[in-house]
Write a structure and sequence with these properties.
It is built from 9 helices and 18 strands. α5 crosses α6. The chain is α+β, with helices and mostly antiparallel strands. The chain starts with 35 loop residues before the first helix and ends with a strand. Helix content is 19%, strand content 27%. The strands form 3 sheets. Strands 1-2-3-4-5-6-7-8-9-10 form a 10-stranded antiparallel beta sheet.
Amino acid sequence: MKTIRKSDKIMFVLFFMLVIVLSPLTFAKETSDDSFGKILADYQLITGFNGDLMTEKHISRVEMIAIISKLYAAEFKDYTPPTVATFDDVKTTHWGYKYVEFAFNKGITSGKSANIFGVSDSVNYNQVSIFLIKALGFDLKGIQYKTAASEIADAYGLKPLIPTENNQILKRGNVFELLVKALLMEDVYGVLGIESLTQSTVLKETYISRSEAVINTPVALYIGSGIFNIYYANGDLYTGEFDGSSPKGNGILKFADGNLYIGQFDKGKLQGRGMLQGHGIFIWSEGDYYEGEWVNDSYNGLGMYTFIDGSYQYGEWVNDLLVKSTDEVTPEQIKAGTAVASKNYVVHLIGSDGLPLNGISLRAIDETNEVSYNLISDSNGNVEIPKIGEFAIVSLTLGENSAYQFSISSNTYMVTTVGIYKKGVTYELFK
């Protein structure tokens, strides 16, 4: 049976610089001196107060329009607003009068109604997306306001790193991110947005390199109970434990291409937390999956590679290669009907001395089918988990008062896979 080496598909980038996202549930540290706001300030698109860019404050509609109007420096300078205000809430004496009239004349905004602009209203994700895409000259006919941000993200690729609801009120920092990204886009004429600010090749190249560096910096968001979400520019999402610079401990990494890893991490790698071995499951989008020990992102130690047809290879792996097979079900056995599907999945519990552990209380949750079982290991150290369907992901939790822990995890939570022909897996426990 031929072993397919899949580790070349485990290609994800884990940067160690994390952007601060200031909110009540956010914890991360900024180790880069650059930010979206600083870039825009250097290109004189935004200003702050005494050096504070006020990224956590909301931004009003008139402030947003003032920023966008600066993208048309020459036109705006030569523009003469009408002597009679278009909107009742933006009088000729208002500081933002020229900005609003200019944007109205350009077709960037039509106001909230025929005579109300909504000058003090905070902008939401829908509105900012519409303003920016219109500023690039694109016609948004057919786009529904309630879903505008999502539609624009799909059509033009303009979206924030952290998923945001269409009607979410945005803070200045969120707006800065979208504006920086919009200036990296081509307008309706195929001209890069940043060219509206400068024709200098050096300044344009500097803007592009600085912007891409900040865009490609992952953002960590604390979601509670010691767990973080880390968002990556390529669409990958990590959920789990985090040491302040990279994934470390137990976590789940959802790849943008549909692949999934559940297990231990150390410095961003698919391996054990400070131990010689780690346990994890990698599930490829096409259906194959590997469960077992990892070191430095490769299969190392005991593990089982299962193919989409249910056949598998179990044994000792070294750098993704099976060097000693102890059990397998081949495609030929499946076709011939000689491979028998197992009715239950056995979890074998042993101590650090290799001997079976009797009377260990274990809760198994079939996460795929949403069924749970409270089990106790028998004299052979076995607990049998009923099978439902051909594939499942099962989480295992020791009792709260258990004197034991899984040796491959410093806490009591682990996961394992259940396949139609798979019979079981062995876990080592220690006191």
